[in-house]
């Protein structure tokens, strides 16, 4: 873990060179330190897989992070000076990459509970029935289980600064076991 973080820090230091001095390819290579080559699979715990996410969703998140509206401590300053055009190109790149889910073994009971909770909360009404996401709603199917759980816990605890506030309301009243079951269910779904 420590080695991965050091590698990530070194690559991110390279990232922080002036925007004009970096080619898009160099920026994408730096992303791989935390999100995996081609945006999947993400090698670090609680890091999202970017491959196969809707381009508009990725682009919006990158803009929010660059502008300091979405708080992602590991990415602070990394997008300073990056143009809108470069952010759009990065988003388009990751959206076009094949998702390579690595969900681990399925727990049938937890999967079934996750499906039940997701259906009860009508998650598909925004994320689509196959949970592939659309426009500004992220793909949930095939996403890292630990990242999904981490994100849902952030929404519930009010720590998802700069993210869709409707998610906190959507998850209100769910237990941590419910969140774990939904994270397991979504991670197990095929892309």
From TrEMBL:
Alphabetical keyword list: Electron transport, Heme, Iron, Metal-binding, Periplasm, Signal, Transport
Signal peptide: 1-21
Gene3D superfamilies listed in its UniProt record: Cytochrome c-like domain
Keyword Transport applies: yes
Subcellular location: Periplasm
Domain Cytochrome c, first and last residues per copy: 15-98, 109-190
Record-level Gene Ontology MF annotations: electron transfer activity; heme binding; iron ion binding
Protein name according to UniProt: C-type cytochrome
């Amino acid at each position: 873990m420590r080695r991965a973080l050091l590698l990530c820090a070194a690559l991110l230091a390279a990232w922080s060179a002036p925007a004009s001095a970096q080619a898009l390819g160099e920026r994408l290579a730096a992303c791989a330190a935390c999100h995996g080559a081609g945006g999947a699979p993400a090698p670090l715990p609680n890091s999202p897989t970017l491959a196969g996410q809707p381009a508009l969703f990725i682009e919006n998140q990158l803009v929010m992070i660059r502008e300091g509206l979405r708080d992602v401590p590991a990415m602070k300053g990394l997008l300073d000076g990056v143009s809108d055009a470069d952010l759009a190109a990065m988003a388009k790149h990751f959206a076009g990459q094949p998702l390579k889910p690595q969900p681990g073994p399925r727990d049938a009971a937890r999967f079934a509970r996750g499906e039940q909770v997701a259906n009860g909360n009508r998650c598909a009404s925004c994320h689509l029935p196959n949970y592939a996401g659309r426009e500004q709603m992220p793909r949930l199917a095939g996403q890292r289980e630990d990242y999904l759980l981490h994100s849902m816990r952030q929404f519930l605890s009010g720590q998802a600064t700069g993210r869709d506030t409707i998610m906190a309301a959507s998850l209100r009243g769910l237990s941590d076991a419910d969140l774990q079951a939904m994270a397991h269910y979504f991670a197990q779904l095929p892309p």
